[in-house]
Amino acid sequence: MPVDIDIAKVAKLARIALTDEELARYGAQLGLILEHAERVQAIDTDGVPPTAHPFPTTNAFRDDVVGPSLDRDEVLSQAPDAIDGYFRVPRILNEG
Amino acid sequence: MTVYEAVIGIETHIELATRSKMFCACAVGFGAEPNTDVCPVCLGLPGALPVPNVEAIEGIVRIGAALGCEVVEHSLFHRKNYFYPDLPKNYQISQYDVPLCINGHLDIVVDGETIGIGITRVHMEEDTGKSIHGSEGGRIHEADHSLLDFNRSGVPLVEVVSEPDIRTPDQARAYAVELQRVVRSLGVSDARLEAGSMRFDANVSVRPMGAMPYGTRTEVKNMNSLRSLHNAIAYEIARQTQVVSDGGIVVQETRHWNEAVRGTISMRSKEESEDYRYFQEPDLVPIEIDDAWRERVMASLPELPSVTRSRYTAAGVEPSSLANLIDDPAMAELLDGAMAAGAEARTVANWLAGEVVAYLRQEGRSVADTPLDATALADLGAMVGRGEVSASAAKDVLRGVLAGEGTPAEVADRRDLRRISDSSVLEAALDAVLSDHPDELARVRAGDPKPLGYLVGQVMKATGGRADPAMVSELLRGRATPPA
Amino acid sequence: MTGPATNDPADLTIAAAGAALRTGDLGAVELLDAVIARASVTEPHLHAYLTLDRPGSRDAAEAADRRFAAGEPSGPLDGIPVALKDNLCTRGVETTCSSQVLAGYIPPYDATAVTRMREAGAVLVGKTNLDEFAMGSSTENSGFGPSRNPWDTDRVPGGSSGGVAAAVSVGSALGGYGTDTGGSVRQPAALCGLVGMKPTYGLVSRYGLIAFASSLDQIGPLARTVGDAVDLLEAVAGFDPKDATSIRGDVPPMRRSLDTGVAGLRIGVVAELTGEGIAPAVAAGFRRTIDALAGAGADIVDVSLPTAPHAISVYYLIAPAECSANLARFDGVRYGLRVDAASTEEMMAATRAQGFGPEVIRRVLLGTYALSAGYYDAFYGQAQKVRTLMRRDFAAAYEQADVLVCPTSPTTAFTLGERTADPLTMYYSDVCTIPCNLTGDPAVSVPTGLDDHGLPISFQVMAPALGEEMLFRVAAEVERLSGFDARPALATSEVLAP
Q1: Cβ separation of C108 and B282 shorter than 8 Å?
Q2: In a mutagenesis test of the A interface, which of C109, C366, C384 is the best target, namely the one with the most A β-carbons within 10 Å?
């Protein structure tokens, strides 16, 4: 059984603007993929810790030393819109 | 009529004063030109990877230890996922269910009462960039746009979350001030609200007094000073109390404090609350703080403000002087030095909190910029103790020392502030006063004690306050007896 | 393994070219010119490259010639023209990940692997095509059109590093670097008749590798021989302070046992990856290699990895989850495509909808879902636990065998369009390669022959973490035993009839 997904909510969380047709299509595809993924749920993992990293290392730090920053012109040359040294974007609706 | 109590929790963000950012080597700058302290990592360029700053980890462990927390031995970084233009990766590297420090407390003193506020957790994260909304700054043509500066992106940020143990705006303010003191005493941040290196959000709810369950809470943001913290919380408590008293329901939402209208304004409904989809940061490995690290930090903690406060109080320092001393380590150091050299704490503390603070404010300097040291304070204290200068003259001497005129002895001499104890000088001054006030002298000789104080006062005035009043009194009593 | 005799430098292996450069029989600029000439012939048929760095490659070749003239070459890669998958950041050279969302993007920095490659004297020919953001197994998901398999241009070169594989296979580069998240170096190598290797996770820095799935991605070499692959890997391997997941400590001695042979070694045949689901020609080729290894003195043992059949499902929960966060930064704010709108929120959503292709959107949505409230434990959380079970399976198997083997790809190269209708059939291409990405262990694909259609067949060797020495030892023997030295007909500098 394909899994039923609130695809519109997922697309909103992922910030991807999809048409109704696209939402329906992706929703169906994801449902099929997840149906396969559900097999994973059947596996007994009681007491098994998750693997977040292939290697069990810790404390990979760097010293508090200042290094060179990027040249601003080079950085802003890639910006879709920039002015007076700032990146410029359209109005932000949700002032955080 | 139902009485309501407020339940308040405070979340504090503290920018650490490291040299470089949390996950990259860009400088933690001071108002540099926009987008000049950036690199692939803090700009969220494709392919960039974070590497944690060990000094920042040290900083948060110190804060946690100072707050009496359990420093977690094995903690993790997580990604907090949400989209916002000042968040370059559209996720923030933070900590989730395994933060670095948990279960601490901070004691606050309000109206003489000590209250323990629980600290739920202290965790490490990175700061965002800054957005300037087009409507600010008077750029009318920019009203439809926002400008972004990523200099602040990636600055190390420590988040301290209190238990909802705070009950009043005064307590909230006291908590904020005490936390600021602790952080500053550790030297890990300048913790300045106006500079944004310390920021507060408050979670506020109300419930009937004595009730157990919590009421619906709102999150209050944009409190940029201690005063607005106090006022915003007070407003929100009143607002919510009114709502529930009227039979309404408090909406769970984020509200911003608006200084202009002196009220909180609803920003967005929290029912659409973000799903942050936390998962362990795959680009970073866990943090392990072993016993040795933990012990080294504990051993290196400075005396915490609450301990200093107790110690000074026990030594006789007046409550009104305490704040200045606790807030400024340089001042506390001077007091400690003077006390070690034998000076009386109360007097020196009063000088520091009074004359010295006033002088510094007037001159716009810090005490380190002046020649004042613990020896001078102890010496001046000794001079007062020996009667060489009066209490009021001592203040002038102190100002002279601050201004670089020399040691207390030198200033007292140069400014002619020493108490006059030479009886011949005092006799002469007394003679002059008595010849100017024959009526008073007659009355004294007739046995009336009332003009005595006035006459002594006149001698003090004539000698610029430097006469030894006890000696003058003594001499005057001698004159009161009519000559044989 | 140097192929049929040819005077064209573009047909040299790295080892042979390096030798000729050092003796002065060949110049670096001359070699580069031959490779560029080859590319001009093959590119119209293959579309392996997205960008050719003409000025940069020339400068690098000239600098190499100066070093050779001074008798001070940098090492085995000095003067060697290599291709780089276009998800590796190259300063000043367009880097797109084959996505419209990064069309025209020019990174201001080099990936660490690129810096090291340059320091080794390698000459960057250009950036090659891939499945968009490395998501795919055929290069058909490229935002700029697919690449084609040099052995049969109606077929895919594999993916996601299909462009690198196609280029190296025909000599428009002598070697290359791709990235491998679920098999994306090994599988295209297999489909194009090359050696392709995924190192132990953390052996090669990921700084500058535009992330797909952070806990799985690794940069790996593609080359015509095992020895060449080792040269490429050694140039870039080793701890990088800019990558917190990079392994500290010494790089394993990778070439030390290349000539030692397999006598006395235990070779574990993975039951779950060598049975049903493997195409007959591939299975037959696999068996031949096993027999040859036995004949060379190896002990063949049967091992079981019970969780191996779940690898694809586990992968398609973990990789999309990580990629959904890794690709969140493509929002039109600071670089890349921007689709204008009245608000930033709308701008971001419109930019991503237009800039990302369908497979990328699919995986970002899937990953977002797998991490979302209420689903984390069942999907992502559970997948990470099964990953632990898989590592335990491998650990147990390595008690019985020194290396594990299976085919690299269940089939030979398939035709364009054959698997694009159903994502799940495409995902199945990686069934043999995914397990090592999940465990972090190294693995290598070695070409062993051609099937009846003239399409390459290959053999995969897997070893424990940091077991590169053992890995290459067995791979070198497989290479020797198979004697594979065929080249695709397209590997020529004579202009072909369309």
Answers
A1: no
A2: C366
Q: Dump pLDDT digits (tens) for B131-177.
A: 998 655 555 455 689 999 999 999 999 999 999 999 999 999 999 99
Q: Do A95 and B133 touch (CB under 8 A)?
A: yes
Using CA atoms, how far apart are residues C407 and C186, in angstroms rounded to an integer?
A: 10
Residue C83 main-chain phi, psi, to 5 deg: -110, 145
**Co-location of B258 and B340 in the same domain:** no
pLDDT at C423 over 70: yes
Domain count along chain B: 3
The answer to whether C98 is a known catalytic residue is: no
Distance CA A44, CA B36 (A): 52
**pLDDT for the residue C2:** 42
pLDDT of residue C285: 97
- Residue owning tokens 């003193």: B109
Residue A7, amino acid: I
pLDDT band at C496 (very low <50, low <70, confident <90, very high): low
The ipTM (two decimal places) reads 0.95
Measured distance between the N- and C-terminal CA atoms of chain A, rounded to whole angstroms: 41
Spatial CA neighbour of C438 closest among A48, A39, B79, A52 = A52
For testing contact with chain A, the best of C323, C368, C436 (most A CBs within 10 A)? C368
CA–CA dist B74, B100 (Å, integer) = 8
The rounded distance, in Å, linking the Cα atoms of B314 and B325 is 14
B315 and B234 belong to one structural domain: no
Q: Which two tokens stand for residue C326?
A: 């890794």
Residue B235 lies in a domain: yes
Instruction: For B25-71, write each residue's pLDDT tens digit.
Output: 999 976 679 999 999 999 999 999 999 999 999 999 999 999 999 99
Q: How far is CA C272 from CA B171, C216, C389, in A?
A: 65, 22, 15
C314-345 per-position pLDDT tens digit: 999 999 999 999 999 999 999 999 999 999 99
C74 is catalytic: no
Which residue from C487, C300, C318, C489 is spatially nearest to C390, judged by alpha carbons? C318
Residue C93 DSSP label = B
Selection from C477, C486, C433 nearest residue C457 by Cα:
C486
Report which residue type is found at B439.
Answer: D
Q: Outline where C335-400 has alpha helix (H).
A: 344-355, 358-371, 382-400
Is B57 within a domain?
yes
Residues in a beta bridge with B92: B80
User: What is the DSSP track for B275-329?
Assistant: ----EE-TTS--EE--HHHHHHHHHHPPPPHHHHHHHHHHTT--HHHHHHHHH-H
Nearest to A93 among C343, C372, C465 (CB): C343
- The yes-or-no verdict on residue B482 having pLDDT over 70 is no
Single out the catalytic residue among C57, C99, C160, C445. C160
Structure tokens that stand for B310 in this block: 């107790």
Distance, in Å, from the CA atom of B55 to the CA atom of B61, rounded to the nearest integer, reads 10
Which residue did the predictor score with more confidence, B367 or C482? C482
Q: Percent of chain C scored above 70 by pLDDT?
A: 98
Residue B211 and residue B322 in one domain: no
Could you give the CA distance from residue C479 to residue C459 in angstroms, rounded to a whole number? 10
Helix (H, G, I), strand (E, B) or coil at C401: coil
Kindly list the partner chains of chain C, i.e. chains with 3 or more CB atom pairs below 8 Å: A, B
> Do B211 and B288 fall into the same domain?
yes
Q: Are C91 and C124 in contact (CB under 8 A)?
A: no
Q: Is the pLDDT of residue B454 over 60?
A: yes
Can you give the residue range of the structural domain that contains B465?
423-480
pTM for this model (two decimals)? 0.90
The tens-digit pLDDT sequence of chain A (96 residues) is 667 789 999 999 999 999 999 999 999 999 888 887 788 888 999 999 999 888 878 999 999 999 999 999 999 999 999 999 999 999 998 765
B328 plus B430 within the same structural domain? no
Q: Is the dihedral of CA B332, B337, B340, B342 positive or negative?
A: negative
